Amino acid sequence: MIRAPWRKTTPGPRKRRRGMLPALACIFALAAIVRFGDGMGTIFAFASAQNSSGDDASCAADEGTLSLMNALRERERKVANQEGVIADRMRALELADKRVQERLAALTAAEKELAATVTIADKAAEQDVARLVTVYETMKPKEAAPLFAAMSPEFASGFLSRMRPEAAAAIFAHLDPETAYAISVIVAGRNAGAPVN
Q: Which residues, 6 or more positions from 144, have their beta carbon under 8 angstroms from its beta carbon?
């Protein structure tokens, strides 16, 4: 076997380097452990000093920081007060809304009752007028004419317009001409303003 002349048989710097790398890694690891241990000792010493001396002694704050903290506390107190006021107002509004709803319901019920009462009263009034019209129709025209002459023309026209035409004509025949004319004008003009279509 022929050896190349550039190749040496003795271990070179490469093999020595391989043995050095693990040694350097161990040295770096030990240095890190020592530094970490030293830093931890400082941290433990600071923590024990802080616990033994209390919060106020260990935290020496300047005036600006203290005034800022006081201002923040004051603002927090004001915000809490305003939240309380707003909550009270919301409760008051809810109560007021509930009362308004109750009153609206009562008003709606009263309106329905009133409408029913008005309907009953209108029906009763209509029945009364219908009875009077029947009474005037059954009276003799000579006896009914003085009653219509004593009424105002507007009132008399209401009854005469509801009567049968032959009964109304008999009463008109016994009225004086001026009263009959006034009643006729009112009856004729009642629907003059009504739409044609």
A: 136, 171, 174
Q: What are phi and psi of 154, to 5 degrees?
A: -65, -45
pLDDT tens per residue across span 115-127: 999 999 888 888 9
* Pair of tokens at residue 33: 């452990």
- What one-letter code names the amino acid at 145? A
121's tokens: 């009263």
Q: Which of 190, 122, 193, 124 shows the shortest CA–CA distance to 162?
A: 190
pTM beyond cutoff 0.70: no
Residues near 74 by Cβ (< 8 Å), separated by ≥ 6?
none
- Two structure tokens written together for 55: 């919060």
pLDDT tens figures, 67-108: 889 999 999 999 999 999 999 999 999 999 999 999 999 999
Task: Give the C-alpha separation, 133 to 137, whole Å.
Answer: 6
Question: 174: which residues sit within 8 A by CB, 6+ positions away?
Answer: 141, 142, 144, 145
| pLDDT at residue 112 greater than cutoff 90 | yes
Residue of 148, 149, 165, 155 lying closest to 186 (CA atoms): 155
Q: Distance between the two ends of the chain, CA-based, in angstroms?
A: 135
